[in-house]
Amino acid sequence: MAACCCDCEDLDEGCESPVGSRCPPRGCRPEGRAAARRFSGNSTAERDGGKAGGRTGASPGPAAGAGRGRGRARAARLLPGVCAFPPNRWLTCKSLAPGTLERIADTVADRVRVPWFAGAVKINVSLVPPLVLLPVFLHVAALHFLLGLVILTSLPVLVLWYYYLTHRRKERTLFFLSLGLFSLGYMYYVFLQEVVPRGHVGYSQVVALTCGLILMLAALSRAKKDPGYLPIPASNEKSSHQGLPNKSVRGSSNGLHGVTMSGAASGRAVNGEAKGYSRMSAGEPEAVKKDWCAKCQLVRPARAGHCRLCGRCVRRLDHHCVWINSCVGEQNHQAFILALAFFMLTSVYGITLTLHTICRGRTPFVALFYCPGAYSDYSSALSFTCVWYCAIVTAGMGYILLIQLLNISYNVTEREARLALRDNTGRRLLGGLVIDTGQYNRGFLCNWGHFLSLGSSPPQRSAEDIV
């Protein structure tokens, strides 16, 4: 057997690479071999025995070989990325193998657990960064004006970068929900600890701010519930569990003729919209094929859409909101708007109270940009930094609320607006803030009446669906 250039661990399995050539893909680097030796659990006597056997020409015993095998397996489990980062990759600027960083991140996420009474509990790693980094960044930003400028400018950039990163990978993450909830809690804590003790905020004002926060959280909790998922046909569930072919019958749903109805799926009409869930044969009309969801194996009703992050079809899908880690649809759109409105009122009220306390004699707008003495003591500096952080977040949420109110006024969803832009079938209005498709627009009052009636009459499931 020829010697291997990198002393790889696959020597026992027959490495055929000659001296001076590159190791085969499965070969591990010397640091991987060292890690395996550290975790092999072999005693010093066994290693010495193996060396002595090599000097005398005797082959090592089976116990030594088994120990090395167990060591390599344990090292591979505990250090999955050891062999993925050889030094020469950094020196020669060679790219890593596809999926290497993802595997390492998955391994680290699997190892992060919290001790509990019933055993270690696995936690989502995306929950941790906001809990640790946000207080650190805000306290560092309060040390000096320039540090605050740099950090408060960098935070939105980092958040947007992470959003586009997860959006491109089509991943769901709890980072934004954790950041939002922890920001609310931490800002409320700073308000009670740094602003209220100064004596310029009354008891009734604290109660009003607290009530606004509670109402916002209640609306957010409602928005987190079912956005209006379309039920998966029972025949699809049975076929997936039992592996039996679906028995279908011909049917129709509100003019959608020629649709093959599968199992318990049947045509329904709710609020004038077709609620047919079915499989589709090859010879269906083009209008039916357009509403067919290949992922959920059903015909979507009007204005419904498939969310690639949730993996479900949603009635009157507006968009997938990362701040609630859920879709915004027919059943929770009102609660979503209510949560945004309560957040805006509570945040603006809290910012006003804080600026009136640390910048006496100035209006809130002027004090936000010119507040002499804000960095005279650390308490005022921290409060002023938190005010600017709240102002940046409030501006972003205010933009989202504005777009939502305009879309409701024209009876268009974010999904429909994007499709209209893609197909060049919509009109840009108000400087491009809203896209009017003209398909469902019935006037300002009728559009708001339609929105306020969403979810008032949930679809009734048939006895077949319940079974």
Word description of this protein:
It is a single chain. With 467 residues, the chain is mainly alpha-helical. It has helices spanning 30-38, 44-56, 62-78, 87-92, 100-111, 128-141, 145-169, 175-195, 203-223, 234-242, 286-291, 333-358, 364-369, 378-409, 414-423, 444-452, 463-466, and strands at residues 113-114, 121-122, 248-253, 256-262, 269-270, 273-274, 292-293, 298-299, 305-307, 312-314, 319-321, 326-328, 427-429, 434-436. Strands 1-2 form a two-stranded antiparallel sheet. Strands 3-4 form a two-stranded antiparallel ribbon. Helix 12 (333-358) runs antiparallel to helix 14 (378-409). Residues 1-29, 43-47, 50-58, 78-85, 238-283 and 460-467 have low confidence and may be disordered.
